[in-house]
């Protein structure tokens, strides 16, 4: 069920978490909630970011970018897909890694100069 998948995706065993994500019953809403969780492993977030079908959902991209555990390289790539309002939010979010926050701040400043 949905609750069991939410528990299993946080499992420290990478195989269990990968099996949850590869399940055909996982919905985009669940993937979005997994991307928001700060308790999931980096591998889960990386797997979500590698799935093109899930990245078509803006809420998933937004959740991945704001998650402190998302690898910095992935967050920087996804930052380009956010709206100006969300980039402004990321630039002031203390939970986001410093390089992502700096890049977002730079993007906000460049947008204001135009």
Descriptive account of the structure:
With 114 residues, the protein is an all-alpha fold. It contains nine helices and no strands. The protein has helices at 2-8, 14-22, 28-36, 42-50, 52-55, 58-66, 72-79, 84-92, 98-113. The radius of gyration is 15 Å and the shape is elongated. The termini are far apart.
List keywords for this structure.
mainly alpha, elongated, single chain, 114 residues
SSE arrangement:
Elements: H1 2-8, H2 14-22, H3 28-36, H4 42-50, H5 52-55, H6 58-66, H7 72-79, H8 84-92, H9 98-113
Apparent shape: elongated
What's the gyration radius in Å? 15 Å
Sheet with the most strands, sense and barrel status: none
DSSP helix count?
A: 9
Structural class by sheet pairing and helices: mainly alpha
Q: Termini distance? A: 49 Å
> What percentage of residues falls in helices of 4 or more residues?
over 70%
What is the succession of H and E elements?
Answer: HHHHHHHHH
Q: What portion of the residues fall into strands of 2 or more residues?
A: under 5%
> Mean pLDDT, as a whole number?
89
> How many strand elements?
0
> Which stretches of 5+ consecutive residues score pLDDT under 50?
none
């Amino acid at each position: 069920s949905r609750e069991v998948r939410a528990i299993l995706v946080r499992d420290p065993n990478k195989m269990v978490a990968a099996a949850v994500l590869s399940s055909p019953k996982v919905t985009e809403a669940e993937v979005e909630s997994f991307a928001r969780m700060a308790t999931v492993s980096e591998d889960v977030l990386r797997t979500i970011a590698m799935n093109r079908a899930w990245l078509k959902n803006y809420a998933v991209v937004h959740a991945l970018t704001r998650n402190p555990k998302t690898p910095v390289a992935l967050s920087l790539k996804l930052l380009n897909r956010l709206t100006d309002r969300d980039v402004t939010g990321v630039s002031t979010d203390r939970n986001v890694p410093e390089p992502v926050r700096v890049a977002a701040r730079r993007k906000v400043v460049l947008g204001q100069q135009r």
